[in-house]
Amino acid sequence: MKRKALSARVAAVIGLLLLSGIVNIVILSIIFSERTVSGMFMCTVILAEVVLLLVSAYLAAEYVLKPYQELKRMYQRFIDGQVYEELFDAENELMPQWKEVLKKIRHLLNKQDAIRMSKKQAEYLALQNQINPHFLYNTLEAIRGDAICAGLDSVAETTEALSIFFRYSITGVDRLVTLEEEIDNVENYFTIQHYRFGEKLKLQITYPKEEEVLQLRLPKLTIQPFVENAIYHGLEKKVNGGVVRVKIDTTEHKLMITISDNGVGMPEEQVEKINGYFEKVAVSYVGDDRKKKGGIAMKNVNSRIKLLFGEDHGVHVYSVAGIGTDVKVMLPRLRRGEYEERTAED
């Protein structure tokens, strides 16, 4: 009985110990479980922060640092003179606003460079032509004097016209002149050509009769090159000659000059090619122009107009083979001092 009671007590103690152990294990498990959850939560928070930092760093590099570095490289390439089209390729992600800024800056720089080059070219042509202008003028005056003494009035008249034409053509070629001066120069030039062609060649000039019209300003040597071109490429090839007409019209804001001839005309393909040149503002090499008949090349006159007054001005050619050619020159209507005022405002 005692053994059974002892065994029962031992069993009870062991049971209590086991129960206590189980309880302790459960409690420890709960404690460790809570710590584990807390630890896991902390790890999750830290990991989330790390991920957030990495994402922030990536976004900063992608949307802040990378565009900045790209912009820096672009500016360097821009300063180095790389052409605009090469700056923006398919992989470039620079903001459109910056593209427009660089495009406008490059356009302005190119325009200023072209204007400076055009002036230098004009000065160079003047120097090439005038070598010793006083010698030329004095010689022409001597020939004119001899012609008058000999009763050769036509020779005297032509020599005087030639002298005046040279003076006008090789001095101050980059300035604005009055329409009246341009018309006088065309008439002088035609006097010289009339000596060669005689009655085979005729000139007609029409313009509004308002006194103000003749005082409108335009670039020097705007009309004469087209008259010369009409003679050499339009009328010279005709057996019975023809007529060059210069028609001047005005609106409130525009001065329009049309130089027409009833010469041989041009095929459509050639007209398209010429107008294609006129679409571009370019300063050609002096050597190229000096090889061409017709004095100053037409495309250089067009370039000067566009550079000075903008893309909505310039030259356009219309022609029909066997019928003739019209050259239309569009200019702003400028009074004395207006161009200088506009330039100062810009």
Note down, in words, how this protein is organized:
The chain is of the alpha+beta class and 346 residues long. Helices cover 63% and strands 13% of the residues. A five-stranded mixed beta sheet has the order 2-4-5-7-6. A two-stranded antiparallel sheet has the order 1-3. A hairpin with a 3-residue loop joins β6 and β7. The chain is elongated. The termini are far apart. 21% of the residues are buried.
Sum up the overall morphology in one term. elongated
Side by side, the strands of the main sheet go 2-4-5-7-6
Q: What is the H level of CATH, i.e. the homologous superfamily of the domain at 199-345?
A: Histidine kinase-like ATPase, C-terminal domain
- Low-confidence segments: 1-28, 127-131, 283-296
Compute the average pLDDT. 72
User: In whole angstroms, how far apart are the ends?
Assistant: 124 Å
CATH class of the domain at 199-345: Alpha Beta
CATH topology of the domain at 199-345: Heat Shock Protein 90
The number of distinct β-strands equals 7
Order of helices and strands: HHHHHEHEEHEEHHHEEH
Tally of helical segments: 11
